[in-house]
Amino acid sequence: MDDKTILRNGAALAQRLDGLGDGEDEYVVVFGDLNGFKLVNDRHGHAAGDATIERAGKLLSVTLESFKAEAFRQSGDEFVIVCQKEHVIEVGEALSGTFRSNVFFHKDIKIDIKMSFGWTTIGIDGPKLCLARAEEACRVAKQRGSGTMLEWDNSHSLTTEELRCRCTKCGAAFRLTPSSAHPFNPNHLWCPQCGHQA
Q1: Which one, of 41, 187, 188, lies nearest residue 124 by Cα?
Q2: pLDDT at residue 154, as a whole number
Q3: Domain 10-155 indexed as CATH 3.90.190.20
Q4: Using CA atoms, how far apart are residues 102 and 31, in angstroms rounded to an integer?
Q5: Average pLDDT score over residue span 59-87
Q6: What is Dmax (Cα atoms) for the chain?
Q7: pLDDT above 80: residue 166
Q8: What is the pLDDT of residue 68?
Q9: Are 30 and 118 in contact (CB under 8 A)?
Q10: What is residue 126's DSSP assignment?
């Protein structure tokens, strides 16, 4: 379990994704992170930030309880949802309604929890690449406003020229730049920080 929320952690997410093989068209990965979370920490301190993370986890759990969806806190203010593709539209509508704006109070501090999301079908490229694609779609969604959920497509700047990756063991973020001599293989990514197969 995660140390700050009621959700499962990044290690549990890695195990779940390992159980979903290449060509898995029935499942999607949804990536979301909190909008403006750094400002909460900077203005109100890490206790307020921890309370925000905890609250976001509870909101995700409640929002998804009607669907066959699993929520994980990957790291920091990043959350990942795995759900059946047939439910992704309803899941998106529910997430949008919850995370467009959701105000709570930590002590006397008013905090508005907002989140944006990106998603993609796991498909033939497998869960590791699709998680990176969902994160890219989330980045674009954040530019369009809180509560937005976008499906990844080629316009979201994830190309063979550069791939944003995140280690499933230590959480380190890194970029992969394939070349013609070293073509990209999503099943052979190694973290430059800890050496784990990412």
Answers
A1: 187
A2: 78
A3: no
A4: 19
A5: 95
A6: 58
A7: no
A8: 86
A9: yes
A10: H
What is the Cα–Cα distance from 188 to 22, expressed in whole angstroms? 14
Q: Does residue 11 have a pLDDT over 60?
A: yes
Single-letter code of the amino acid located at 54: E
Tell me how far the alpha carbon of residue 108 is from its chain's centroid: 30
Question: Among all chains, which residue has been given the structure tokens 């973020």?
Answer: 173
- Work out the angle at residue 184's Cα, subtended by the Cα atoms of residues 125 and 142, and round it to the nearest 5 degrees: 65
Kindly give the interhelix angle for 46-64 and 88-99, rounded to the nearest 10 degrees.
140
CB-based contact 133:156 (threshold 8 Å): yes
The torsion angles phi and psi of 182, rounded to 5 degrees, stand at -130, 75
What pLDDT does residue 101 have?
A: 96
Q: Which two tokens stand for residue 68?
A: 């066959």
DSSP line for 21-69: -TTEEEEEEEEEEETTHHHHHHHH-HHHHHHHHHHHHHHHHHHHTTSSE
Domain boundaries, the chain: 10-155, 159-198
Cα separation, 147 vs 93, whole angstroms? 9
Residues whose CB falls within 8 Å of the CB of residue 46, separated by 6 or more in sequence, listed in order: none
Do residues 133 and 158 make contact, with C-beta atoms less than 8 angstroms apart? yes
Mean of all residue pLDDT scores within the chain:
85
Asked whether the CA dihedral 74, 117, 18, 64 is positive or negative, the reply is: positive
Token code pair at residue 135: 């994160």
Q: Which of 150, 87, 155 is nearest to 115 (CA)?
A: 150
